[in-house]
Amino acid sequence: MGAYIARRLLLMIPTILGIMLVSFVIVQFAPGGPVERVIAQLQGFDMGATSRFSGGGAETGHGGAAQIGQGAEIGSKYRGAQGLDPKFIAELEKQFGFDKPAWERFLLMVKNYAVFDFGRSYFRDESVLKLIGEKLPVSMSLGLWMTLISYSISIPLGIAKAVRDGTRFDAWTSNVIIVGYAIPSFLFAMLLIVLFAGGSFWQIFPLRGLTSDNFDQLSWPARIGDYLWHIALPVLSMTLGAFATQTFLTKNSFLDEIRKQYVMTARMKGLTENRVLYGHVFRNAMLIVIAGFPGAFVHAFLTGSVLIETIFSLDGLGYLSFESIVNRDYPIVFADLYIFALLGLVVNLISDLTYTWIDPRIDFETREV
After folding, report:
1. Which residue among 12, 28, 249, 253 has the highest number of C-beta atoms inside a 10 angstrom radius?
2. Which of 70, 95, 128 is the last residue of a domain?
3. Nearest 5 degrees, angle CA 124-CA 338-CA 239?
4. Distance CA 327, CA 305 (A)
5. More confident: 13 or 97
6. How many CB atoms within 10 Å of residue 341?
7. Which residues have a Cβ under 8 Å from the Cβ of 14 and sit 6 or more positions away?
8. Which pTM value belongs to this model?
9. In this structure, are 235 and 104 located in the same domain?
10. Domain membership flag for residue 157
């Protein structure tokens, strides 16, 4: 097992490099950029969907507003740069690092990222690592709660559906699950807001934030209740789709195992149905369910939380990533990509190790990675 773990860890290096290289190349051909963003601000246009940044490049850009008209650069490579001093444009390029060739910027990024040095945000004038650390607890809360709740419901329900396959219970629960799966999480979130967050009916749950303004003044039991009160609707919205997927995955996995010869043999030996189901079938059927855990967790941690964080005004990592892409804040964009790619690879390795813990017959040592 030690050799397998070492091979997987070594394989992570070229995988991460490949992900970063492809993303870096795509960004080079993407329209717009931080320089164009500052130029648009100077010319009175807002290129992004958000404008909650301060400091950094934005301050430098407005500081150079006085240089408008000092020299025109006809045929500038930046849209809207006509009428700006070429020296000012050069200063912007130097500030954002675009005075260096692309290959040199990529190599510098790889060197810094190897020691988790992500630099500073272009438009927030803060350390990227500090920003990610501030937003991480919100997304972690959403991802962990969604994963725990969806698994704790879908696994027992999937087992019950497999045991009662073809019955009326199996039919009506499948209909409910399919309807739940067909509803997008953001649409369900809007429905919950309309019903329970003061939209048109009842105002039972809060609409903004993860805690109340007086959270620090509350006792510990009151803090727990306040936290659960705020997170109820966002987690419920995110759980809907994952709950449906995991339920059918569990059911199908158990059905495959129940129909195998060893199950019939166990029953013929006189073992009780619970002993057969949970002593023999459960261990084998749960392997495929565990295999889906990394993807479910990473999806909930990033992709699944972007819209939910936006709808419920939760200042988490998902919304930070979206905002950074819109505002062309590349240090945050690449740092988020690097962290989530690394997280996905590590979680997949943990999943493989969990395989061997559940079923010692699985031996990755003899496998080729």
Report:
1. 253
2. 128
3. 90
4. 19
5. 13
6. 18
7. none
8. 0.71
9. no
10. yes
